[in-house]
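Closing statement on the iron/sulfur cluster sub-project.
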Amino acid sequence: MPSEPFIFNNESATLCGACGGECCRTRPGIEAPGRFLAAPDPAGHLRDLLASGLWVLDTHYGVPYDPAKGERGDPDLIIRYPRPATRPEQESGGISALPGAGECVFLRADGCALPFADRPRACQALEPTAGFDCSSSWTRFDAARAWLPHQDTVAAALTRLSRPPL
Ligand code: SF4
Ligand code: SF4
């Protein structure tokens, strides 16, 4: 079974409460492949989340690369990865990210509706900082690297989403 690194719960009620969830009000965090790869049917699990209207696919243009390792980029490659929808995205009824900022569908008046363990990897990795200069140990570049080998799962989910129900 694929494993994700253990994430320490670094929520800060003091800092995040004072901030009011700026991160959640602008762009929901990207999820890592592990949740899907651990499911008996990874593409089916992704399809189900997209069909719920609560999740969308976001797009990363170009392959992140490290020149120090002799890697080369590919600016033409498109990598798609899932994240919770914003409210405008949910209202649109689509499964693709829309441009611009928007509030996450899981944000409630008292914070995130999801238990910490169920939140996307990028949400778990945010490190609240005084002054709201928050950083993350798992960025969208990390998400692109993680999802690059699993684009076939994304494609299979999209194919099955477009089929009429049996
Ligand atoms: S992680 Fe940072 S931006 Fe997000 S709610 Fe906490 S303090 Fe605000
Ligand atoms: S899933 Fe939760 S923590 Fe992540 S952006 Fe949405 S409300 Fe915020």
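The pocket of iron/sulfur cluster (ligand 1) is lined by residues 15-16, 19, 21-23, 126, 128, 132, 134 (CB under 6 Å). With this model delivered, the sub-project is considered complete and its resources will be redirected to Aim 3.
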